[in-house]
Design brief:
Elements lengths: L1 H6 L3 E3 L6 E3 L4 H4 L24 H20 L2 H16 L3 H5 L3 H19 L24 H8 L3 H8 L3 E7 L6 H9 L5 E5 L6 H6 L2 E5 L27 E2 H7 L15 H9 L4 H5 L5 H19 L2 H17 L2 E7 L7 E2 L6 E2 L1 H21 L10 E8 L4 H17 L4 E7 L12 H14 L8 E2 L16 H7 L4 E4 L7 H9 L3 E4 L1 H6 L11 H6 L4 E3 L16 H12 L5 H13 L5 H31 L6
Parallel strand pairs: 3-7, 7-10, 10-11, 12-13, 13-14, 14-15
Antiparallel strand pairs: 1-2, 4-5, 4-6, 8-9
The chain binds inosine (NOS).
The site of inosine has 15 residues, from α14.
């Protein structure tokens, strides 16, 4: 009813012709004769001016207003109230403590960074975000807009250069396989001429086959029967032992057609490798095309992780990877990390594809390589760059049956008993909008906690939770949200927590229980939770008083990582441009929380904080020395 009423066309009378003109159409086209009979002058309007109002009354009102304006101009009441309000907010802000502890150098660095950021926002050569009627140039980008689209601009930014130098504390949410980019793993795969194999999910004949196929790598004995993936009779059924589904990677590369398009052809990679590189990452097209769905990005993401896994999980590269991953973290100014390997996979092959290395062998390799790196750093007098090595969070998927979960919990406890200083947590992974929810395994997980207590060991939960817009734990019912179970099962931290704002009561409980959030803003954008960093809820989560950390999640898949600049720097950059209220003090607080909510021992934490504090002051001094003069030369912005 109401709708119909409002839908009625608004019409107005044309004074001269007495015709009615529709506002929706140009005057010439829709002038039609008015149905009105009465002359316009006689129409009585419902809100006609009172005949009793007179000029002296209006003049009187004007005088009263003028008097009150003069009084208000003299008064400081409003500006004082406003000042009190802002001070009150600042005092209770999440970064207030960090700010109150800031040295003069840090305060100076803050002024410099914010000034540069605001100039970069309007700089026509970088973002050019000037409000106005002129249609922006083609190269204009929103600061804090889409990450992959903006990435080349970001990497020319001074704020990003500063973020790269910033000491970051710990990296607490990093999937093991995605620390290093495909560009450096693919050349490694060339070495295994006889034993690196690939399979696809269909024969590769026409261009659409190349787009649609999934690709999987595996190291197998050299006698493995060889398939030809480019032949029409290729049968992809690899589970059937009688069928040859695997093709040697070197043969695949040789036969790969030269006309298959890709977004980028990096130097040093051949066409097949360039094509694979884009199969194992979220491309701009895949992330942002207008037909993309949430499940669609997750399906592609899962294909990428399955492909990536084979490029890394074989003996020599697994070993080589540890030291290289640590070097990459050191470049990123990360001093300690808790890595998340998917340990449902029980073995990785040796390079000849004959031996299988179990979890114990794998953890031994990690310990040996961490130790080697330690000695290397110590010899160079640089142990403070990465003094505590890495720890491992046991990950298994949320999709497995309960019986399988029980054996996973057994395996995790066994590994903890074998490597007490290495294993530091347990996590359930996978797309959260698919079964099961964490609560599905509640009895098993409660029993796991009690068992750990009885055994005198500690394996805290660090569940992925709230990495979803539906927040129903993969079911049709909001009551199945993983955010409830993470709290009830006493999680030490949760991965993401993006959906936590749907539960104001849980926000309070998470604060009471000191549960920290491992935020992953770039991941959340690329997996379609938000459009860009400015839409991410991190400013609110922080303002609500939750302890948060910043994390890269899967940097190689999300292309936040390049050979000379890596992942966590991009995340810190994103929050600096994602919220105008982010400050260098906020950066420091986030880094400090990453240490405080880590699994470092009390003694390690004390040492970590001392190193961090020293590095932080050096960083602030570097900002002032390197950018102080430059910032001074920039105009003051209103
Ligand atoms: O952001 C994430 N949320 C949930 N699961 C994830 C995420 N990133 C990776 N994995 C899962 O972890 C395993 C690799 O360690 C993969 O199975 C991947 O699907």
């Amino acid at each position: 009813m109401l709708k119909g009423k409002f839908k009625r066309k608004r019409v107005q009378a044309d004074a001269k012709s007495g015709a009615v003109i529709s506002e929706d159409h140009p005057r010439e086209e829709v002038v039609r004769k008015s149905p009105r009979k009465k002359p316009l002058e006689r129409t009585v309007l419902p809100f006609a001016p009172s005949t009793r109002s007179n000029m002296s009354q209006i003049d009187g009102a004007n005088d009263v207003l003028a008097k009150n304006i003069a009084l208000a101009e003299k008064s400081t009441d409003y500006s004082h109230s406003r000042g009190y309000l802002l001070t009150a907010e600042r005092k209770t802000a999440w970064d207030a403590d960090a700010k109150s502890r800031a040295s003069d150098t840090e305060l100076e660095a803050q002024t410099i960074i914010v000034k540069i950021r605001e100039h970069e926002r309007i700089d026509p050569n970088l973002f050019g975000n000037l409000p106005g009627e002129a249609v922006p140039e083609a190269g204009t980008r929103d600061m804090g807009g889409r990450f992959l689209v903006n990435k080349p601009n970001v990497e020319r930014s001074r704020v990003f250069a500063i973020a790269q130098k910033m000491p970051k504390g710990s990296h607490l949410h990093l999937h093991f396989n995605s620390e290093l980019p495909a560009e450096i793993l693919l050349p490694q795969a060339r070495r295994l001429e006889d034993t690196m194999f690939v399979r696809c999910t269909r024969p590769l004949l026409e261009k659409p086959d190349f787009a649609a196929t999934e690709i999987v790598f595996n190291v197998l004995p050299k006698e493995t029967p060889r398939a030809n993936i480019f032949a029409a009779d290729y049968n992809s059924d690899w589970k059937n032992a009688a069928n040859a589904a695997w093709m040697r990677w070197c043969d695949f590369r040789q036969h790969f057609p030269s006309d298959i398009p890709c977004e980028v052809r990096p130097g040093g990679l051949d066409v097949a490798e360039s094509w694979v590189r884009e199969k194992v990452m979220i491309t701009t097209e895949l992330a942002y095309n207008d037909r993309q769905t949430h499940n669609g990005t997750w399906a592609c993401f899962n294909q990428s992780t399955r492909a990536f896994k084979g490029l890394l999980n074989y003996e020599s590269v697994y070993r080589w990877y540890i030291g290289n991953a640590i070097d990459s973290m050191i470049r990123d100014k990360v001093m300690y990390a808790e890595l998340r390997p998917m340990l449902l996979d029980k073995v990785i092959p040796s390079d000849d594809g004959i031996r299988q290395l179990d979890h114990k062998d794998q953890m031994n390799i990690i310990c040996e390589e961490v130790q080697k790196k330690r000695q290397e750093l110590e010899a160079a007098g640089k142990l403070d760059l990465f003094p505590f090595g890495v720890k491992i969070i046991y990950c298994t998927p949320r999709s497995i049956p309960k019986a399988r979960m029980q054996t996973e919990l057994q395996d995790c406890i066994k590994l903890k008993l074998q490597f007490p200083d290495l294993i530091c947590g347990f996590d359930l992974v996978g797309a959260e909008d698919r079964p099961n929810n964490v609560g599905f395994y509640a009895e098993l997980l409660v029993a796991f906690t009690n068992t750990c207590r009885e055994l005198g060991i500690s394996i805290p939960f660090m569940f992925h939770a709230g990495e979803t817009l539906l927040d129903t734990g993969g079911s049709a019912h909001p009551d199945n949200s993983n955010l409830y179970d993470a709290l009830l099962l006493n999680a030490k931290r949760i991965g993401h927590g993006y959906a936590l704002f749907k539960h104001p009561m849980l926000v309070e409980r998470y604060k009471q229980h000191n549960i920290a959030l491992e935020l992953c803003p770039i991941s959340n954008e690329l997996l379609h939770l938000c459009g860009n960093a400015r839409e991410h809820p991190f400013p609110g989560l922080l303002a609500a008083g939750l302890h948060c950390t910043l994390n890269a999640d899967n940097p190689s898949l999300f292309r936040a990582i390049t050979l000379d600049s890596s992942s966590l720097s991009h995340e810190f950059y994103q929050v600096m441009v994602g919220d105008t209220r982010m400050s260098v003090h906020g950066w420091k607080q986030l880094a400090e929380w990453s240490l405080e909510h880590s699994c470092l021992t009390a003694a390690e934490l004390k040492k970590a904080k001392a190193i961090f504090e020293r590095e932080w002051e050096l960083f602030c001094r570097w900002v002032v020395e390197s950018y102080g003069e430059y910032a001074e030369g920039l105009s003051e912005l209103a």
